[in-house]
Amino acid sequence: MRARRLVCGIWSLCFMFCLFCIFLHQTTAKRKLKFVSMVFCHGEHTPEELFPADMHKEILRQQGHGQLTKLGIQQQYELGQYMRRRYSHFLSVVYKQSEIYVQSTDCDHTLMSAQASLAGLYPLTQDQIWNPRILWQPIPVHTVPLSHDNLLYLPFSHCPKYKELLRETFTTRDFQRQLKHYKPFLKFLATHTGYSLKKLNTERIWKLLDTLQYEDNNNYTLPVWATRGVRTKLIKLSELLLQAEFGFHKQIQKSRLQGGILLKTILKHISNARNSSHRQKMVMYSGHAATIAALQTALNVFNGKLPPYSACHFFELYQERNGQYTIEMYYRNNSLRNPHPLTLPGCKFRCPLERFTQLVSPVLVRYWTKECRM
Asked: Minimal CA–CA distance to 48: which of 289, 306, 262?
């Protein structure tokens, strides 16, 4: 009898010890980063278009349209270095094709931006050096022609329903009330740039701002009329037009036809990353300010400001200690500061994947071509 009690006591102790070990494992196990997707804006580039009255025609003759500048290369290289620091314990030290996929719009400055970022992300190790005078390695960057880009080159203009929504937006009382303040300014710009008032559309306003910013940053003499106050007002007008493109009026309907397409693709990659056989760790997209604005509008986290050069939106998928998957989002719009945490409206910052998908489901379209029809 005494021996039986002793055996029972030993089994009880063993059972309690096993429970303690399980509890200890659960409390000390770390949450794991499983997948990262990022969408970034290109670095500084030469103008894509000079305004008719621009005196610096030599810029395009010497350097060409939309070419990444030395500053732009540096901005993107530093973004890549930041990625390496942030994900040093997640990505392999050396480039592995199975771990990362990179896609860019088919524009010189976005393709160059992707390459410069990858150079910062994957500095060569001793075994990888193929020429001691060239500390660089080629890494694939995928693209499609702009006419076939239904992912990154936003806004997608070849969508009749979107064009109708945009026309509606421009006629709303709220938009017209805000645009009214800029009508004298638009006439001022037409007078001094050489553009007719009809040609000062959204895209041309953005390109004009890019040109003046490039010339100011690179010590070209600006026109007398392009004062700091004028350039600040041009930024404000550009931001108003950017918000009108993707939000402002019928935001959900617009997002279904614009930024929701990229969001749906990113969520598909995130969902696939939960499989134990999945080897890919990162998908990187090189796009434009409009790409980030459309994506963040679809997420309802856009701050209304023009994304600066090399701005980057991060999605991080984690597996928590209890096995649940969560998404965290960050926005890096200043290289001197840590990225801003972004919280999806209706969820906490560390948002469960199922809840995240449920909240964004209204902007995820199933048949884009069908919905684009009038």
From this structure: 289
Q: Is 112 helix (H, G, I), strand (E, B) or coil?
A: helix
Tokens for 333? 């719009």
- C-alpha 81/C-alpha 176 separation (Å) is 44
Non-local (6+) Cβ contacts of 150 within 8 A are 156, 261, 368
Q: Which residues contact 276 (CB under 8 A, 6 or more apart)?
A: none
- Cβ–Cβ under 8 Å, residues 193 and 53: yes
Nearest to 298 by CA among 179, 170, 155: 155
Q: Is 356:271 a contact under the CB 8 Å cutoff?
A: no
Tens digits of residue pLDDT in 243-279:
999 999 999 999 999 999 999 999 999 999 998 888 8
- Residue-level length of the chain: 374
Q: Domain-by-domain residue ranges, the chain?
A: 32-155+253-372
pTM (predicted TM-score): 0.89
Give residue 319's Cα distance to chain centre. Answer: 23
Model confidence over 96-130: pLDDT tens digits? 999 999 999 999 999 999 999 999 999 988 788 88
CA 366 to chain centre: 22
Contact 103, 78 (CB under 8 A): no
CATH classification (class only), 32-155+253-372: alpha beta
The pLDDT score that the predictor gives to residue 24 is: 40
Mean pLDDT for the stretch of residues 7-15? 50
